[in-house]
TrEMBL record:
Transmembrane domains' residue ranges: none
Species of the source: Drosophila suzukii
Required cofactor(s): FMN
Name used for this protein in its record: pyridoxal 5'-phosphate synthase
Gene: LOC108019110
EC number: 1.4.3.5
Pathway(s) of this molecule: Cofactor metabolism; pyridoxal 5'-phosphate salvage; pyridoxal 5'-phosphate from pyridoxine 5'-phosphate: step 1/1; Cofactor metabolism; pyridoxal 5'-phosphate salvage; pyridoxal 5'-phosphate from pyridoxamine 5'-phosphate: step 1/1
One Pfam family matching this protein: PNPOx_N
SUPFAM superfamilies for this protein: FMN-binding split barrel (SSF50475)
Amino acid sequence: MSSALAKIEDFPPDPVEFFKEILQAAAKGHPEGFMQEMNLATVDDEHGVLNRTVLYRGLTQDNFVFYITHRYTRNFKNLQANPKACITFYMPDVKDNAGNQSSWQVRLIGATAVELPESEMDALWAKENLAAQIRGHICPCGEPINYDELKAKHDQFLEEHKGKLIERPASYTAWKFQPQRWDFLKVGIDQIADRVQYRLQSSGNWESMHVST
Ligand SMILES: Cc1cc2nc3c(=O)[nH]c(=O)nc-3n(C[C@H](O)[C@H](O)[C@H](O)COP(=O)(O)O)c2cc1C
């Protein structure tokens, strides 16, 4: 049996830069089609809190994490009613330059969701794959559904749109997140984790520190 303390050695002054570094390292072992998911927790009237997995779509021009959804989903309605949210990323296989493997959790704490402007939606919609575009038209999110009926609807939609551009539905939208804190946790096998937290100051600067796990 062994035990050690993980140590986050070098970290840049800007948390977004740190996040990009870790993401890049996580993607290294997966040259094709690397996708990063994130867990999004929102305040929900009925359940108190509700979380779900969504796809990380990158950073906006002003450097905020964003994801894409539809206005008919619960996650959209939750954020519209209360923009407070928390996000976690889990990256289980990140190698440093020396080849040592660690897992990382990156958490956006006290984040405020801001909907992206309509003017940015066409470009995002154009990059969606066919299944995602069809889903946007035929799926009543969260409602009971009959597979055979949905399949018939899907197949008909596919047939009618063969070789045609699929129009962006009005429900298609995206949210970015402005966090108060970024929390980075690193741990390896038989290690006690290390954490680095960035806290947004009233000056707009980030203060960073190691915090206990
Ligand atoms: C790998 C994965 C990626 C997903 N990506 C998204 C996404 O980007 N946007 C989204 O609205 N739902 C996404 N979902 C579906 C959500 O987890 C969720 O089921 C759906 O949004 C309805 O959740 P709600 O009732 O909390 O709104 C994804 C699910 C999985 C498993």
